Amino acid sequence: MSNMKNRLFIGIVAVTLVSLMVAACAGKGTGNKKDAPAVSETATPVIDQETILLLKDLEERGDYVNSQYFPSLIKASIVYEELGENNLVIDLRAANQYSAGHIEGAVSKQFGELPDYFEKGIKPFEYDRIILVCDDGQLSSYTTSLLRMMGYGNVFAMRWGMGGWNNRYAGTGWMHGLSSKYEDRLEVSTNETPAPAGMPVLGTGLQTGSEISDARFRKLFEQGTENIIITVDEVFADPSEFFVINLERKDKYDAGHIPGAVRYKSEATLGFPDMMATIPTDKITVVYCGTGHNSAFASAFLRLFGYDARTLKYGNNSFMYNKMTEERSILSWLPFTLEESNDFPVVKK
Q1: Residue 257 backbone dihedrals phi, psi, to 5 degrees
Q2: What are phi and psi of 60, to 5 degrees?
Q3: In the chain, what percentage of residues exceed pLDDT 90?
Q4: Which phi and psi (to 5°) does residue 243 adopt?
């Protein structure tokens, strides 16, 4: 039995056992309704056939999110060293930003144009690497995750975006996103993972995994990028309005996290139905990490399965920057500094 099929089988058995145990426990008590709340019949976790078929299809496409290539990031220095080689750089920024200055040889494409461009505009596998670039690296990370899951195994996101390419862009982007304004509201207590309650019902009406995958990828590209990123001010206005997922190591999580955040291991969550079924479907899911790169990759997977998942812009850098800097050597935080940026040239059109 393959890894994905084994995980799928174990996951379905796990959520079924949990629901049976919950039902059994609900039947115990003294007969007084106040002793134990009633368990709704709808509490049984829902993993519909379309979700199962989608999981199987992603396995056949390479099970990207559980591979050694996840997440697929590349440093600006490597991109610069390989200019003129058999690589393609795609700039996802607005057309006016591209015209004002871009990496030599880069082509300008908008997010929604990419499926057709990859199918009809280029022969993707003729390139050694296809490198996606945006302002700060989060849109390109999200997009790279989708394209990788679609089977384009040579796509990478440039770390830090244009902020890593040239410090002029870092000065107007990343440096403005660094903040410590919510450090006094960090939580250190552990929040438990909810019981499995189900996964979104995809409802495509299609019969095969490949058809369902294609439909879901097409829908995400049609939806655009307006709701894939969320700011720290939106989250801290009332963290209880969201289901917050922390993707950091346990020691980093224990050092301080967004109030209510639950720690998930990316290597044991994405593609595991028993864990994905613990993510509520009735709230916006905010996914965050140190920089926003890894969370953007993860949120793409969750959105593919119907979750309203959003990556936190700039990650921990956006609300606990001083703490990250002070504890950098102890916890190996990655606070952005101008040392992460370069002074590589841009061309204008």
Answers
A1: -145, 170
A2: -65, -25
A3: 85
A4: -100, 115
